[in-house]
């Protein structure tokens, strides 16, 4: 027996006398849910079947609209010519849509490749500029360092010469004090 929404709705259960049975309200509520679900699925199945039939009819019409040899075309009715013209128009539009699609895809790929190449060129140029700038700065700092080292060396030599000259002067003054007479007007030592 096939299970249908009506058979579920009409299903009845006998009441047991010697033991507890199921709660009748729960069983009936469940059966109502099952029946609704089956009705919903049957409606969906019928709708899908109708769509299949419509699509099959359209497919058959499209197959019938394929251009026939010249002799057969003369025999077809004006409605057949209209269908053939419509099929050709649809085919041409489909072809045009495919060509446009291919064109836009190709243009997009070309533009993507161009943008990637430009981006890579820009990145390489920036890296090269940064390396050049770094080398310039390092060279400039090297020159400045050399100048500073030379200046420090020059100042150390000057300091050493100055100290030597100062030392000689002070030693000469001390020798003059040790050797010389006392200055005039100086009190005499007792």
Written overview of the protein:
Helix content is 82%, strand content 0%. The radius of gyration is 56 Å and the shape is elongated. The chain contains four helices and no strands.
Radius of gyration: 56 Å
User: Which structural category fits the helices and strands?
Assistant: mainly alpha
The overall pLDDT average reads: 81
Q: How many helical stretches? A: 4
Order of helices and strands: HHHH
**Main beta-sheet strand count, sense and barrel state:** none
Number of strands: 0
Straight-line distance between termini: 157 Å
Percent of residues in helices: over 70%
Query: Low-confidence parts, pLDDT < 50 over ≥5 residues?
Result: 69-74
What is the overall silhouette? elongated
Percent strand:
under 5%
Provide a short characterization of the protein structure.
By secondary structure, the chain is mainly alpha-helical. It is 82% helix and 0% strand.
How do the helices and strands line up, and which of them pair or pack?
Blueprint: H1 5-10, H2 24-64, H3 70-75, H4 78-179
Key terms:
190 residues; 4 helices
């Amino acid at each position: 027996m096939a299970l249908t929404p009506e058979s579920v709705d009409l299903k009845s259960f006998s009441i047991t006398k010697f033991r507890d049975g199921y709660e009748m309200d729960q069983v009936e509520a469940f059966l109502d849910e099952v029946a609704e679900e089956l009705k919903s699925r049957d409606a969906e199945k019928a709708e899908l079947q109708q769509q299949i039939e419509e699509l099959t009819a359209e497919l058959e019409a499209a197959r019938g609209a394929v251009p026939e040899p010249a002799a057969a075309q003369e025999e077809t009715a004006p409605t057949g010519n209209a269908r053939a013209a419509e099929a050709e128009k649809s085919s041409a539009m489909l072809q045009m849509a495919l060509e446009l699609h291919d064109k836009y895809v190709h243009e997009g790929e070309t533009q993507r490749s161009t943008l990637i190449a430009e981006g890579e060129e820009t990145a390489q140029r920036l890296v090269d500029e940064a390396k050049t700038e770094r080398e310039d700065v390092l060279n400039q700092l090297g020159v400045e360092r050399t100048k500073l080292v030379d200046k420090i060396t020059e100042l150390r030599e000057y300091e050493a010469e100055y100290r030597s000259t100062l030392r000689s002067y002070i030693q000469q003054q001390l020798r003059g004090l040790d050797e010389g007479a006392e200055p005039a007007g100086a009190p005499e030592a007792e």
